[in-house]
Every structure is written in structure tokens, then in C-alpha cells.
């Protein structure tokens, strides 16, 4: 199976006002009468990328993109007000109702896998299937591994750049130290911190380091939204109990939903431990470890399995 690079451009672009503050951007592409699938982007804060349409057969799927609060083309950019996991879950449901869709497939990687699980556990009767990649459940141990000590041992040169904006005396809690800089009233301080935070993730996302991917962090507007929103969620523990998404009573709500999980063996952003913990809590899922992949959905082995999964569910 290969990516559907013939994916069509959006046939509908819309705005959905979800609060006095936030207006969300959404796009529909593929087959207007096809099987609806919502793509939940990562970050939080990254926004959707047109290339993400390539995971879906455009003849069979109605592909729905949603830029989450403060991300992508949603406004206001980088806003942290009224921006929590549960606000986003409500937004997804509002969009489903707005588009008059009864049930849809849900596809998400990294933070998108977190939000997919949170949405499915909140609205299990609205989800036809789940395709999840790079599992992230926002446990303190996961955040500590990536932002404090763990991934630092694999990417020491990138780590030195990541910690550079933070005074040595404040490095005992890097997420909190970054929180102060990312919310600084000084534009230069905030953007410098945002780029350093974003570059750390870009530098560690692929098995083979990709300079072009790292360079994406140089975009001031994108980095500001990505870093500020991610950090906001992470210092607040995702606005949920530690390990909530893996609790038996939560998994029991979605145990009946056909689900494929795809995890890179050498994922340094969302290590395989979390995906394995999900498999142990939910043995019914179809589970794949990609032996030659890191975190990115763009790595060949991961891409292939993601397309196989969406093809499998296209007629469900």
C-alpha cells in the first residue's frame, strides 16, 4: 500500500465559532459522499498539513480536517484561554453535529492519539474505528522522559540547544521554566523560547534526522502556537488524571471499537512503552511495532501501515 498522493484539494472550507474567543478552521476533501473520517492533528498546537490527506483513499473517504483551538488557521492563534483537552473534545462533537454526521472514523497520531482516545471515551457511540500512531497518554513519566531526562541521552547535541534558553538554576523543571518564557510579555524572549522548544521535537521525530523537518521550527507564527499550546497542556497534565486514558473503566467504554495501533520501535518522542501499556490494557486492538521507524508518520514503514489501516476500515 502506498500513500494516496492523488488526494484532492479541499472542496469545502469552513469556520466554526465554538466560544466567544475561539473560531475553528475546518476543511473537507475526498469524496463528498464517502465514509467520513476526522483527522486529529498532533502537538497540541501544530495544525493540519495538506499532506495528511494522503493517508486516505480520496475515492472512498470524506476527509475532515480540524485545526484545534489556537492552532493552524483557527483563531486567535496561540490562544491559551478556554483551551483544554475537554474543550477540544466538545469541539470535535460540535463539528460532527455541524456536518450532520452520525458516526465517523477517527485518525490521530502523537497528541492526536491522545485526543482520539479522549474523544472516543467521551463519545464511544460516535466512533466507527480508531487508527492511532505514536501513542501518547500524557502521563507524567512520558513528559519527564522527553522534556527532562530520557530522550536527552539519545540526542545530546539537540538537547544542548533545547536547554540553552533556560538558566542553569532553572533547569530542574524545564517545562515550568519554559512556561515562564513562552508566556513572557517580551516578544523576543517568547519567540526564541518557542523556536527552541519546537526545534527539540522536530530534531527528535525521525529515525534519520531530517534538516528540512527541523527547519520548520524557524517559522515564528507556527512555533509560537505549537510551543505555547503544547507547554500549556503539559504543565497542566493534560487536564486529566495521570494515566486516565489507560484506566480500565475508560478502556471498557471503547473496547468494542475496531482499532489499529502503529508504533515506531525507535520513537524517542512517544516511546513504545506507552503503546505497549495500551496494548496490555486493551488486548483486542490490532498492534504493530514498526522496526525501522521513529516518531514521524512520514517514515516509510509507518506510512505503509497507516494506509493499510485506513483501507481496511474504508467500507466499515
Structure description:
The protein has helices spanning 85-98, 111-122, 140-147, 156-163, 174-182, 187-204, 211-215, 220-235, 248-254, 272-281, 300-313, and strands at 12-17, 23-30, 35-40, 61-67, 104-109, 127-133, 259-264, 286-290. It has an eight-stranded mixed beta sheet with strand order 1-2-4-3-5-6-7-8, with helices on both faces. 38% of the residues lie in helices and 16% in strands. Helix 1 crosses helix 2, helix 4 packs antiparallel against helix 6 and helix 5 crosses helix 8 (220-235). The protein is built from eleven helices and eight strands. It is of the alpha/beta class and 316 residues long. A hairpin with a 5-residue loop joins strand 1 and strand 2 (23-30). It has two domains: 12-137 and 240-314, Rossmann fold, CATH 3.40.50.1820; 141-239, no CATH class.
Features:
2 domains, 316 residues, Rossmann fold, Pro_iminopeptidase, cytoplasm, alpha/beta, 16% strand, 38% helix
Amino acid at each position: 500500500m502506498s500513500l494516496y498522493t492523488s488526494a484532492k484539494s479541499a472542496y469545502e472550507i469552513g469556520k466554526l465559532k465554538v466560544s466567544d474567543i475561539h473560531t475553528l478552521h475546518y476543511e473537507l476533501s475526498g469524496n463528498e459522499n464517502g465514509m467520513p473520517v476526522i483527522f486529529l492533528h498532533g502537538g497540541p498546537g501544530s495544525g493540519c498539513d495538506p499532506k495528511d490527506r494522503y493517508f486516505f483513499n480520496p475515492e472512498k473517504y470524506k476527509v475532515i480536517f480540524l485545526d484545534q483551538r489556537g492552532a493552524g488557521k483557527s483563531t486567535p492563534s496561540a490562544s491559551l484561554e478556554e483551551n483544554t483537552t475537554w474543550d477540544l473534545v466538545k469541539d470535535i462533537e460540535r463539528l460532527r453535529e455541524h456536518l450532520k454526521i452520525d458516526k465517523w472514523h477517527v485518525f490521530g497520531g502523537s497528541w492526536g492519539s491522545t485526543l482520539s482516545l479522549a474523544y472516543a471515551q467521551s463519545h464511544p457511540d460516535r466512533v466507527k474505528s480508531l487508527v492511532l500512531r505514536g501513542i501518547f497518554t500524557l502521563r507524567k513519566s512520558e513528559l519527564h522522559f522527553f522534556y527532562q531526562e530520557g530522550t536527552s541521552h539519545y540526542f545530546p547535541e539537540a538537547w544542548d540547544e533545547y536547554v540553552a534558553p533556560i538558566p542553569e538554576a532553572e533547569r530542574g523543571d524545564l517545562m515550568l521554566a519554559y512556561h515562564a518564557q513562552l508566556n513572557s510579555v517580551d516578544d523576543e524572549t517568547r519567540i526564541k523560547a518557542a523556536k527552541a522548544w519546537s526545534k527539540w521535537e522536530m530534531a527528535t521525530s525521525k529515525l534519520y534526522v531530517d534538516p528540512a523537518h527541523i527547519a520548520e521550527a524557524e517559522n515564528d507564527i507556527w512555533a509560537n502556537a505549537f510551543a505555547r499550546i503544547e507547554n500549556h497542556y503539559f504543565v497542566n497534565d493534560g487536564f486529566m488524571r495521570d494515566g486516565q486514558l489507560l484506566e480500565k473503566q475508560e478502556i471498557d467504554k471503547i473496547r468494542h471499537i475496531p482499532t489499529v495501533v502503529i508504533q515506531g520501535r525507535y520513537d524517542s518522542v512517544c516511546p513504545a512503552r506507552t503503546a505497549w501499556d495500551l496494548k496490555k490494557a486493551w488486548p483486542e486492538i490490532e498492534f504493530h511495532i514498526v522496526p525501522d521507524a521513529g516518531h514521524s508518520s512520514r517514515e516509510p514503514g509507518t506510512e505503509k501501515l497507516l494506509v493499510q489501516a485506513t483501507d481496511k476500515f474504508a467500507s466499515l
